[in-house]
Amino acid sequence: DTEVTQTPKHLVMGMTNKKSLKCEQHMGHRAMYWYKQKAKKPPELMFVYSYEKLSINESVPSRFSPECPNSSLLNLHLHALQPEDSALYLCASSQGGAGSYNSPLHFGNGTRLTVT
Amino acid sequence: DQQVKQNSPSLSVQEGRISILNCDYTNSMFDYFLWYKKYPAEGPTFLISISSIKDKNEDGRFTVFLNKSAKHLSLHIVPSQPGDSAVYFCAASEVGGKLIFGQGTTLQVKP
Hints:
The complex is a heterodimer.
Chain A: E1 4-7, E2 10-13, E3 18-25, E4 31-37, E5 44-50, E6 53-57, E7 64-70, E8 73-79, E9 87-94, E10 106-107, E11 111-115
Chain B: E1 4-5, E2 10-14, E3 19-25, E4 32-38, E5 45-51, E6 56-59, E7 62-67, E8 72-77, E9 86-93, E10 100-101, E11 105-110
Parallel strand pairs in B: 2-11
Antiparallel strand pairs in B: 1-3, 3-8, 4-5, 4-9, 6-7, 7-8, 9-10, 9-11
């Protein structure tokens, strides 16, 4: 069982909908991440929060809006998405702050998002 | 520009034999390397890592080798088991930098 929990597991939304993806970890990790993974491709970094502050935004379109309410929770708010945004969205956490040496990422099982 | 490359999209081995997965990188500033395993419908699972000051790290059936001069690392799985069948991602980072993943290699271990 993964120690990073993501909900929902599956989400289908229309292009005009607003939805949110949620991620939770209770390992005391100080950095949390959102990745996007398309089929047969590696995970691509979207956002990094380090000590609850946004430290990296990989030029992600504004229709994706991250939020870190506290050190254990990470949300990704979705609005006006496009069909090409359909993908597996992965949350991860790591013990140190972002980029800490020798601190592997622990991933959740992801949310499979389909935009219709 | 792909900084981390896994040139073999797939690998098939017989149960009990050795699986060797390869990874090449171009950024000489990378100093931390990891291998992840991914089953369908699950997130990547951390397997093993190695820092640039070492050339080998072993954990049970899994051993990672690092050749800095060749900018090459490999993952050895001995003995291979059918449950090892998955996609394996190599990843690398600089100090304070983000993690860069390779394209992945699909390993099939046949009974």
